Write the structure tokens for this entry.
Amino acid sequence: MLDVTTPTVVTMEHATLYLADAYALLPRLGWVDAIVTDPPYEFNTSGGGSFREQRGHTDQIAEEGLDQGFDHSIINSLLCGSVVVFCHNDQVPALSAYLQGSFSRSVLCMWIKANPMPMANKHYVADAEIYFHAWNRDHHPQGSLAEKKRHVRSQVGRGGKYGHATVKPDTVMDKIITNVAGKVICDPFMGTGSTGVAAVKAGRTFIGIEHNPKHFATAVERLRLAHEQRVHAPP
């Protein structure tokens, strides 16, 4: 169990990263403009047939408890202006009801996978992932008309590169950050820092929380690189 009273903190010019329990720490951080997060899904990781051995990330998801869902109360509409949250198809009814009861408006969006795994496991092919964008007054979606499409198409992420089973692609996170209002972005389930990288690239301030030391270390390195690239980016 992490000692949340004295979490490990790494600070950078445009980011603050915490190795801590998000449920204990997030309420203590105060107001943020937006929560953008990919929390643990709630789904059955069994099955897979002949593809199981090729899908090592499924075993990793189960081992790290990323199939156990999350407590919706961590998304507190009194502490943020808007939220973007990924979820499994089976989580949609409960999460939708929670967001509609907490925020002024919400919309279901989708990441369409250009290269989905060719299997269905007695379901539909997992060729898309759902995310909700919910907001309160003055925190509505941002961007041009073309940037406000409710879907984004991209290749599956680079989990193998970062040692995490559910890494979201840069294309997906860049679009989401474009659509989110405000300066300060928080991800309480930071993983390896994909939300933070997109936020720093977009000139936002990022707060990330992750409880897994291995993924936290990866996030620190990714955010440091993002800062370096921002400094050396052409004006």
